[in-house]
Amino acid sequence: MTVRKFYVHMLVTLLLVGLISTSYGEEGPRTGIFIYTLKFGNGKAMKFKAQVPKKLPKEKTLGLILAFHPHGGNESSMVNWPSKTFLERQKVLDDYVIIGLKSRGPKGYKEHLGDWEIADHEPSYQTFQWAMKTYPIDSRRVHIIGWSRGGFMATRFIWNNLKHFATVTAFAGAHSPDWTSKSLGGYPNQDWVKLKQSKGTRIDYSVDFSKKSLTEYLPKSRDRKVNLSEYLPEFYHVHGDRDYVIDVNLTRSFTRELGKIGLRFIYRELDGVNHAGVFQGKPVNFAVNDDVFAWINATRNKILPLNETDRKTLATIEKNISTMASTQAIALIKEASRIGGHQGGKALIKAFDSKFVDVRVAAVTSGYTTSYGPAFIAKLGELIRDPKREKDVRFNACHVLGTYAKWRQLDAQKILTDTVLDPSLSQYIRFQLITAISRSYEFMVAGNMYDDRKIIQTLVKLLDDPNVGVRGYAHMVLKKGTNGIGKFGYNASHNKSERQAPVSLWNKWAAQITVPLLSDNFVKKRSSEIPGALRDGLQK
User: Fold this and answer.
1) I need a labelling partner for 416 at 20 to 30 A (CA). Which of 192, 223, 435, 532 fits?
2) Edge-to-edge strand list for the sheet holding 32-39
3) Sequence spans of domains, the chain
């Protein structure tokens, strides 16, 4: 073989090797956007669409989102919108593998309610396992989402797979055993909302996870009462109250049961929003979905242990960060943020002992994008009250707590609602606390004023605060719950006697607006649906 022919032969060989190395299922995992079908035993398969960062990290640091489409959808339905879109808006798209799964459809189904039934569970789980083996995914950053029938799937699939997922997100759907072909007429003839309306009564759907054993994931030996929310996955539900495809009371029933057993959930009910509108239309819908994906990005699996590398990193942080140079310490704070969870928070507390202000500020501000658990939250509460701490540290401590409160971390809510009532704190700090509380309130006025009612009750208490500025700011925030027109004759500059009657009206409003969503006494926030006497007061 001549030298020229030899080099041509080698070039062709290298090109072929290059093509093989980037083809699916061979030497390297496929990246970018692609559609593929995995085939398993017993004739089972799963078609999916994936979006994978083109450059894969060496360590297992990526997050994974498994997405279940609505009825009639396909593997593409949840990948670009909402997953890719809202991860891009959070500037974290390259940190995630997104896999949109495709249900098998009517073939093999026994329940006949639409896409996603028991027959889909095993292929979905096997696809999840394939992704974990194929890509450098952090097992503590794995999440499932679903819309409509996909929401049914996500909230059903989770119960046999609790240890694998950090969060569950369901848009306009949640599973209930009441939704059967017998009770609802069978797909495609069922009309769930009309069924409810024809009886003239509200349906309280049963939920079947309350009988499942959840204690197996708790510490074996414990000297204190343990909250399930500290160990099990978190839930985020979004549902419009004008949904004529899937009854909003289904999500109300599901989240009520989550609360009864002590699991952490967020429920954003959207007034006037229909089935498809949870993703589009009003600005509040974009705000909610931004919040969903910020929460996903911040939350870690609480069951699975840290890997050895991350344990060593946190041990170094806990031992040395208080005495490190600023540049080195801030680099480690970024690592603590990546690791996250209560383990990361416990180690990061030591950063507040650093002599460098920028290190202390970096530690607290990392909480905007990472949930760190109870110990870190308690530390933020201490920082707020410490007048010797820097203004930037205290300012950001208030607002990070506001972020956690918005995500229904109840210890953060309690710190905020207790601390803001303390008249010994400066007006500046109390204003920051009111602003932090208002972040939760802004989501509440979209439709669900019940779950976080302590926020409303605290704001109403502030209407009688000794500080006129605090009173005025609290009133300004509260008015958002009445479309901005609510006054009840209240004037923050009036004396206590003059404020008595208006404050009484505000208390009555708060009592009515915060009844349970599944109560027969439930009323909407819109002034047109508020009882007459109170509505008249709103106009004054």
Assistant:
1) 223
2) 32-39, 45-52, 96-101, 62-68, 137-147, 167-171, 234-240, 265-270
3) 35-298, 308-538
Q: What is the pLDDT of residue 211?
A: 60
Question: In b/e form, how buried is each residue of 22-34, taking b as 16+ CB within 10 angstroms?
Answer: eeeeeeebbbeee
Superfamily per CATH, domain 35-298:
Alpha/Beta hydrolase fold, catalytic domain (3.40.50.1820)
> Crossing angle, helix 468-478 and helix 453-461, to 10 degrees?
140
- The answer to whether the peptide bond before residue 177 is cis (omega within 30 degrees of 0) is no
Residue 402: pLDDT above 90? yes
Helices (H), 340-467: 341-348, 357-365, 374-385, 391-406, 410-419, 427-444, 453-461
| Strands annotated E in 194-259 | 234-240
Distance CA 32, CA 57 (A): 14
Distance between CA atoms of residues 129 and 418, nearest Å? 45
Residue 48 · residue 127 · CB < 8 Å: yes
Distance from C-alpha of 179 to C-alpha of 460, rounded to nearest angstrom: 40
Top pLDDT among 422 and 519 is at 422
The residues near 42 (Cβ < 8 Å, ≥ 6 apart) are: none
Residue 10: pLDDT band (50, 70, 90) is: very low
Contact by Cβ (8 Å): 492, 468? yes
Write the CB contacts of 82 (distance below 8 Å, at least 6 apart in sequence): 145, 279, 289, 292, 293
Task: Supply the DSSP symbol for 181.
Answer: H
Residue whose entry in the numeric block shows the structure tokens 């007061």: 537
Summarize pLDDT for 480-491 with one digit per residue, the tens: 888 766 678 999
Residue 55, class by beta-carbon neighbours within 10 Å (0-12 exposed, 13-18 middle, 19+ buried)?
Answer: exposed
Question: Can you tell me the distance from the alpha carbon of 483 to that of 524, in angstroms, rounded to the nearest whole number?
Answer: 12
Q: Is 324 left (phi over 0), alpha (psi -120 to 50) or beta?
A: beta
- Average pLDDT of span 472-499: 90
Res 210 pLDDT > 50: yes
C-alpha span between 535 and 486 (Å, rounded): 9
Question: For residues 6-21, b (16+ Cβ closer than 10 Å) or e, as one string?
Answer: eeeeeeeeeeeeeeee
Residues 344 and 318: beta-carbon distance below 8 Å: no
Do domains 35-298 and 308-538 share one topology? The answer is: no
The span from the CA of 505 to the CA of 512, in Å, is: 11
> pLDDT tens across 246-305, in order?
889 899 999 999 999 999 999 999 998 988 888 876 788 889 999 999 999 999 999 999
Domain 308-538 CATH assignment equals 2.40.280.10: no
Q: Transcribe 71-92 into DSSP letters.
A: TT--TTTTIIIIIIHHHHHTT-
Strand partners, 36: 48
What is the rounded CA–CA span in Å between residue 123 and residue 129? 10
CA dist., res. 400 & res. 337, Å (int)? 14
